[in-house]
Write a structure and sequence with these properties.
Largest sheet of chain B: 6 strands, antiparallel
Number of helices of chain B: 32
Largest interface: A-B, 40 and 32 residues
Strand content of chain B: 5-15%
Number of strands of chain A: 11
Number of helices of chain A: 5
Structural class of chain A: alpha+beta
Shape of chain A: globular
Helix content of chain B: 55-70%
CATH superfamily of chain A: Lipoprotein localisation LolA/LolB/LppX
Strand order of the largest sheet of chain A: 6-5-4-3-2-1-11-10-9-8-7
Helix content of chain A: 10-25%
Distance between the termini of chain A: 39 Å
Largest sheet of chain A: 11 strands, antiparallel
Oligomer: heterodimer
Number of domains of chain A: 1
Distance between the termini of chain B: 38 Å
Number of domains of chain B: 3
Radius of gyration of chain A: 16 Å
Chain lengths: ~190, ~800
């Protein structure tokens, strides 16, 4: 029963990693130029998931890799290996067991596609797509900043409350996705190499 | 009588005595004994002018106008059909009838495949979305698919509510525990938001099974909210019209609506392609209509021009036209009475047969000597004339009795037309031409005749092409035969190719092999399918096939749904199992309350039935897989990757007729070969009859082999030429070859007349060349048709007629005549 919006949630933490957008009184152009100068970035991550249905917080760790222009990989190493790759116009999820990879063609989900473009946009210098999808509040300065993004689409709002992206300089360090039901995914990202 | 007097008496030819010397006053009372001929205003070496009398033109004009009026009246009264159903045979065995019925109702579903290509992907997606959004508003379509929602949310919710009736579930504490562990894994994965949405309410995974079954085998890519072909930039849409596919008018409206929606979407350079059975019907109807119109007009013009060149007299043309036009009217009326309607293809072919039937009046007028009473002309050419008519009619027998509905109409139209034209020519025409003093001006003993006839000295060289054709056909092991019934349909090949391509891209190829499951109602069909599933699974495990699709997988029978609901564990047991399964997992105690509630709600559900799905996308998916037929319901199980048809056939043989294994291609091929065999039989019988007629008619046993030989030579060389140019010979070619024989016998019989003076031989040659040219022109036009059936006939007859003329001239005439 995957609905477009719901499916897009799968990708949100990943896609919003370098996701930035224009906001008033924030030197986005400068930040953008910094981000675009990097052709490849690799970083470790630690992710915590809180679900209302669970007594425990689920923790996982792994590495993130972005390569210009349109390749993004999230490699979960522990405790349950999984690899999620956004490449061109599709998303491939491979689990450690020998199940065939799960392929999501981005085109089927305009929202997901828009988000992929919005992620690639900042890195290549285009924030337009992200702005069409989210209302963006920016805070801080170039050295330390936070962007709070709220979906524009009312349907998306039914499932997703906010996405908060924080970073230092040209590095994104923290992505927190809060769903409408209160469930939370919080990804802390180590320094890029 | 003024009218009997020569108008001009300057041509020496007019001074010739009448041939029998007793022509004056003979013939039918009141006939003008003396022909009137004048100098041709512009004499041509090989042309013959005709000079009409002035006063007695009225009867010809009257007959001509009357014939036109009758034809117009008939055409306004008959029902002309251009659909394809008329053309498909009924089939004679039970399986064959079934397959044909399936093919026909399959074509009646009004399915239209739409492709948009030739622009950047984003534009294609936008256009596709706009078209998809515009079509439902027209009210013409039952289904428009190819856009964003694979299924609308309401339908997803309905399926989800019925999940424990629709999907099999293992009800046990162990299974629930396994489900919970799986859910926990998913919560750790990228699929977490999805898993939390459905997993807590369905830890046993019934909805996942439903999803998998719904996904089917479609391979379309989704780009920008539109379906795209798997390996090219081509947006795809699938729509189904409310009207049946055979309702040509409604299909015209539907396709027009699609075109309008496409244009409204500012397509720029993008192209719109549409295919599908419904479009076939429309295309075939359009092609037939344009073919018929073109052929009727062009062949009429060609014949009139040719006759003008030959006779230089509008009156002669009117005289020739009268019986021909009248014969078309009679043939159309006969078809309307005999078949209840006239098919457009038959009309088109009938227009072409003018090129043959017009031979008779041309032969009659062309052979008349100046001043000769009509009786003399008839006496001189009588035997050849009657034999030619009889053999030509026999030549159409294979068509009439082929049992192939479309061909039977063509044959009947032609046979009635030919016979009527011949009878009218024999009875009516002489009065008219004599009354109007029509006759070709004799060109005496033309110088070219001996030159041409001297060619016959080397006629044995004419056997060379025959020997070559025979050797060629033997060398390649006989001509190639067409085994595909589709290729006989009036649908243009380009339309069929596009349909195949789009079906392939949409992942919905034509069913090649099916198990047809039948029952008195939908429920019984679904139950029978369910009983088949374990057998099919076993066969798949054994490698007899790679997979199968059936309705029962999308919608189980009501009995199965009820049984599943009845087997649900009671609330207390389930709650205890959930508690037991939860032990040691980080789920809160209330986490699975949605699951317990859902199972509770399921107990009171009524099973979903096909009627509940009417008007939904799932219903549209189910439609071709489960549908009412004239007798009960049927649901084809589509088999994929069949490697062992014999095993499959054997596995289900005992369950006939409610379960039948059908190899569609094989059955259709079988039907075709049945008709071909029948055509061969008729070819044989009419061959025997022609032989008998010739022995009786020619009264010279020695002539029979020559007459037949010339015709057979033409048929053989034609078959070899068609094969050499890549044609696959079919039933159509076979009956067309028989038509060649009928036309060829005309020529041979006229050439075979003996002891004629040079003047008569020249008349014969000229007249036959005229006839041949008309046949060539009209059938040549037919060869340029879009409708495959007409084109095949046209090519065969045009080629055969020319060869028949050559062989007839070489072999049937006397080597040293005169």
């Amino acid at each position: 029963m995957p609905d477009l919006v719901r499916r897009s949630l799968i990708l949100l933490p990943v896609l919003s990693w370098p996701g930035l957008a224009r906001a008033d009184a924030f030197p986005l152009q400068a930040l953008m130029a910094k981000l675009a100068a990097v052709t490849e970035r690799r970083a470790t991550f630690r992710e915590q998931r809180k679900f209302a249905a669970l007594t425990d917080t689920l923790v996982s760790t792994g590495t993130l890799l972005y390569r210009r222009p349109d390749y993004l990989e999230k490699d979960t190493e522990w405790p349950q290996p999984e690899r999620l790759v956004v490449d061109g116009d599709r998303v491939v999820i491979t689990l450690a067991n020998n199940d065939p990879p799960h392929v999501i063609p981005l085109g089927g989900q305009p929202e997901v596609r828009a988000m992929v473009e919005s992620m690639r946009g900042p890195l290549s210098g285009d924030f337009g797509a992200l702005q069409r999808l989210f209302r963006i509040d920016a805070a801080g300065d170039l050295a330390s900043w936070t962007l709070t993004m709220t979906p524009q689409d009312p349907n998306a709002l039914k499932l997703l409350r906010t996405v908060r992206v924080a970073g230092r300089g040209d590095q994104i360090r923290d992505i927190r996705v809060i769903q409408a039901n209160g469930d939370e995914q919080w990804m802390q990202i180590g320094p890029s190499s | 009588m003024d009218a009997d007097r020569p108008v001009v008496l300057s041509s020496p030819a007019t001074l010739e005595p009448s041939p029998s010397g007793r022509g004056q006053g003979e013939g039918v009372a009141g006939w003008t004994p003396v022909g009137i001929a004048g100098p041709h205003p512009n004499p041509l070496p090989e042309g013959e002018g005709v000079v009409p009398g002035r006063r007695r033109a009225a009867p010809i004009l009257f007959a001509f106008l009357l014939a036109i009026a009758i034809l117009a009246a008939v055409l306004s009264q008959i029902t002309v059909r251009t659909d394809m159903a008329e053309f498909l045979p009924q089939g004679r065995t039970a399986a064959a009838r079934l397959v044909m019925a399936e093919a026909r109702t399959g074509t009646a579903t009004g399915l239209i495949l739409i492709a948009i290509e030739g622009a950047p992907v984003e534009n294609l997606a936008r256009i596709s979305r706009q078209v998809a959004a515009a079509l439902p508003g027209t009210g013409l379509f039952q289904l428009v698919a190819g856009g964003e929602a694979a299924l609308p949310q309401a339908e997803i919710d309905m399926l989800f509510a019925h999940r424990y009736a629709l999907a099999p579930v293992d009800w046990s504490a162990g299974a629930i525990r396994a489900g919970m562990e799986g859910l926990l894994r998913q919560l750790r994965s990228s699929a977490a938001p999805l898993a939390i949405q459905y997993g807590l309410a369905d830890p046993v995974g019934a909805s996942a099974v439903l999803l998998r079954d719904l996904a089917g085998s479609s391979q379309v890519r989704d780009i920008g909210g539109a379906w795209f072909a798997p390996d090219r930039d081509r947006a795809l849409l699938l729509v189904r019209t409310r009207a049946g596919g055979m309702d040509v008018k409604a299909q015209e409206e539907a396709t027009a609506a699609i075109e309008t929606a496409f244009r409204a979407a500012e397509p720029g350079p993008a192209r719109l392609l549409i295919a599908g059975p419904a479009v076939f019907a429309r295309d075939a109807a359009r092609a037939i209509k344009s073919d018929v119109e073109r052929i009727s007009i062009l062949s009429t013009i060609c014949i009139v021009l040719l006759l003008w060149w030959r006779f230089r007299s509008p009156l002669v043309i009117a005289a020739i036209a009268a019986p021909v036009v009248l014969s078309v009217a009679v043939a159309a009326a006969a078809l309307q009475i005999g078949f209840g309607a006239v098919h457009g293809v038959a009309l088109g072919f009938g227009a072409t047969m003018l090129g043959v039937s017009v031979d008779y009046p041309v032969l009659m007028i062309g052979h008349r000597k100046r001043g000769e009473p009509a009786g003399h002309t008839r006496r001189r050419i009588g035997r050849a004339f009657i034999l030619a008519v009889v053999t030509a009619a026999l030549g159409l027998a294979a068509m009439v009795f082929s049992g192939f509905p479309g061909l039977a109409q063509l044959g009947a139209f032609s046979a009635v037309g030919l016979a009527t034209c011949a009878v009218l020519t024999w009875t009516l025409l002489p009065r008219l031409i004599v009354a109007a003093n029509l006759a070709p001006v004799a060109a005496g003993d033309p110088a070219w005749l001996p030159v041409l006839e001297r060619l016959r000295r080397w006629r044995w060289f004419g056997l060379l092409p025959v020997a070559a054709a025979l050797a060629y056909l033997l060398a390649i092991g006989g001509p190639r035969w067409e085994g595909d019934l589709d290729n006989l349909s009036p649908v243009p090949e380009s339309s069929r190719a596009l349909d195949q391509e789009l079906r392939g891209e949409l992942g919905a190829p034509d069913a090649g092999q099916i198990l047809l499951v039948r029952g008195p109602n939908a429920e019984s069909v679904l139950q029978r399918q369910e009983a088949l599933m374990p057998v099919l699974d076993r066969l798949r495990a054994q490698g007899a096939l790679t997979g199968f699709d059936l309705a029962a997988r999308l919608l189980p029978s009501a009995a199965t749904q009820q049984a599943r609901l009845a087997a649900l564990p009671d609330a207390a047991t389930l709650a205890a199992w959930v508690e037991q399964a939860r032990a040691g997992l980080p789920f809160r105690s209330e986490a699975f309350q949605p699951f317990l509630d859902a199972v509770e709600a399921s107990r009171s559900l009524q099973p979903l039935r096909p009627t509940d799905l009417a008007g939904t996308l799932i219903g549209a998916r189910l439609d071709p897989m489960l549908a009412p037929r004239a007798e009960g319901w049927q649901g084809p199980v589509v088999l994929h990757g069949v490697t062992d048809p014999a095993q499959l056939k054997a596995a289900f043989a005992a369950q006939a007729p409610s379960v039948m294994y059908i190899d569609m291609r094989r059955e259709l091929g079988g039907i075709l070969s049945g008709y071909t065999a029948r055509a061969w039989r008729w070819l044989g019988w009419s061959g025997v009859l022609v032989l008998l007629v010739l022995f009786a008619g020619l009264r010279s046993p020695l002539m029979v082999p020559r007459v037949l030989g010339a015709v057979l030579a033409a048929m053989l060389v034609t078959a070899a030429l068609l094969t050499a140019f890549g044609a696959r010979l079919s039933l159509i070619h076979l009956v067309a070859l028989q038509l060649v024989a009928g036309v060829g016998l005309d020529y041979v019989l006229f050439f075979a007349r003996r002891q004629l003076d040079a003047e008569e031989r020249a008349r014969t040659l000229r007249t036959l060349v005229t006839c041949n040219a008309m046949t060539l022109l009209t059938f040549g036009l037919l060869a340029a048709c879009q409708t495959p059936l007409l084109r095949d006939i046209g090519e065969t007859v045009a080629c055969g007629a020319v060869l028949a003329m050559v062989f007839a001239f070489l072999f049937a005439g006397e080597a040293q005549a005169g």
